[in-house]
Amino acid sequence: MREIKFRAWHKALGRCLTDIEMNAYEAPFINGELCFPTNVELMQYTGLKDKNGKEIYEGDVLKFRKDTFRVIWLEAFGHWDSSYIVKKSKITHLFPHEWNNAEVIGNIYESKDLLKEGKDAEVSSTVADGGQNRD
After folding, report:
1. Rounded to an integer, what distance in angstroms lies between the CA atom of residue 20 and that of residue 29?
2. What pLDDT digit, counting tens, does each position of 32-63 carry?
3. 16, part of any domain
4. Which of 18, 21, 25, 71 is least surrounded by CB atoms within 10 angstroms?
5. Which residues contact 43 (CB under 8 A, 6 or more apart)?
6. Is the dihedral of CA 133, 54, 125, 4 positive or negative?
7. For position 88, which CATH number holds?
8. How far is residue 116 from each of residues 30, 86, 120, measured CA to CA in Å?
9. Cα dist. 30→16, 45, 131 in Å?
10. What's the domain count of the chain?
11. Which domain holds residue 100?
């Protein structure tokens, strides 16, 4: 069974917090204190780890070879995916089953400089070559 856990970007503190508990009202308890959802951005654990064993969360930035990706949840399809931030190779897509070969190099809140390196592309659920094009 997949482990369900979260981390949160606390807007006022300007940092990620990991001691998160959820309740039935979707208001997180962070470090034992109730925190209103307007103060935080929750990021769910994907259940996957990178090549160094680091847990991968929604909003993480992954480096795979020469390319950089952002981890996203595709609500319409009900699954984790990634979108390009920087594309420098012929790789057409980085599928979640490949994330264990990538490296978490930051997240969209703490590493805004990584997002400025390139233009975030639209996610395409249909990949012509099935993601087999690897250089």
Report:
1. 6
2. 777 776 778 889 999 999 999 999 999 999 99
3. yes
4. 25
5. 6, 7, 8, 9, 16, 57, 58, 59, 60, 107
6. positive
7. 2.30.30.290
8. 30, 9, 9
9. 11, 16, 39
10. 1
11. 6-115
- In terms of Cα–Cα distance, which of 33, 38, 45 is closest to 6? 45
In a domain, 61, yes or no: yes
Q: Which residues contact 95 (CB under 8 A, 6 or more apart)?
A: 81, 82, 131
Residue type for 66, please? K
Cβ neighbors of 124 (< 8 A, separation 6 or more) are: 93
Do the domain assignments include residue 124? no
Using the CB atoms, write b or e for 12-41: b if 16+ within 10 Å: eeeebbeebeeeeeeebebeeeebeeeebb
Question: What would the pLDDT profile of 71-116 be if each residue is shown by its tens digit?
Answer: 999 999 999 999 888 888 888 789 999 999 999 999 999 887 887 7
pTM: 0.77
